[in-house]
Amino acid sequence: MARIVVVGSVNADLVARTARHPRPGETVLGSDLEVLPGGKGSNQAVAAARLGGDVALVGAVGDDAFAGTAMSGLLAAGVNTSAVALVPGPTGIALITVDDAGENTIVVVPGANGSVGAAAVAGRQQLVAEADVVVLQCEIPRDGVEAAARAARGRVLLNLAPSRELHPDVVRLADPLVVNEHEAFGALALLTSDAPADDAGVVRALVGAGVRSVVLTLGAQGALVAEGGRDPVTVPAPQVEARDTTGAGDAFVGALAARLAEGEGLVHAARHAVRVGAYAVTGAGAQPSYPDAGDTLPEVSR
User: Fold this and answer.
1) How many CB atoms lie within 10 A of CB 215?
2) Angle between helices 67-77 and 40-50 (to 10 degrees)
């Protein structure tokens, strides 16, 4: 039994660095190309495991040359990969461009991740049901996400990324729902016709619409946390110089899951997670930039 079970994607990231992102129809020269392990599910599992979490992953890779790279970070971090299936066809791929400011653009080709639907989750139902925290994202089929959320008996951490339509009852199972500003409005549209104008109004409206708790991530500004009938709490982030923002949100989610699995409260867990996310943007790539439990994290200036 793993205390944290992540149900999600496993990719190989093809990362190109360039001075700036090309405009439509334009070609620019890149300075470097790396092939790294990635995928939102894999990233979040690795982030939690490197911080000391007991983590298993439910997912799939293809039978191509990219599978080894995609699995390498999970194996190095000690994630239990016994529920990662090997399926015919290509492994999931993310095509990532990173500019000199550290900002990225990403195109994801799902590949084997498309096989992680409701039937695949049903085959791992006991593993999911026994977890203290079940972590979900949206790079696998919708029915796989929904089946895992409904199978969970522990806490469901739903990262609605990339933004997509899910059954409203599944969104309401999230505790917490982790979203950025764009994803938050998408989630709210699934639940209510309310249209608040500010971040605090959005998280209040999500909780008011039945979501158990919400963490709204705000990048360099940190996060906003709402749960129950309490006022939203602002969680500031450390100020760091960003080298590469790829996978920083997944580092945040993995760190949040690790602390929640230890029984820590949501606000305190989020305070730790923003520091892990800030650490991640100072390194290159997704999984290679994640801290281990003994690493010194940046501090929030007072």
Assistant:
1) 28
2) 20
Catalytic annotation, pick one of 132, 250, 292, 295: 250
Which of 29, 41, 36 has the alpha carbon at shortest distance from 13? 36
Q: How far apart are CA 127 and CA 43, in angstroms?
A: 19
Residue 271 tokens read as 């305070």
Q: Give tens-digit pLDDT for 123-178.
A: 999 999 999 999 999 999 999 999 999 999 999 999 999 999 999 999 999 999 99
pLDDT in tens, 18-74: 999 999 999 999 988 999 999 999 999 999 999 999 999 999 999 999 999 999 999
Report the C-alpha dihedral over residues 208, 213, 218, 224, rounded to 10 degrees: 80
pTM: 0.94
Q: What single-letter DSSP state applies at residue 4?
A: E
CB 225 within 8 A of CB 215: yes
CA proximity to 36, closest of 61, 11, 57, 59: 11
From the list 106, 61, 95, the residue with the least C-alpha distance to 245 is: 106
d(CA 138, CA 177): 12
Answer yes or no: 64 catalytic: no
Q: Which helix (H) or strand (E) segment is 225 a member of?
A: strand 223-227
End-to-end Cα, the chain, rounded Å: 40
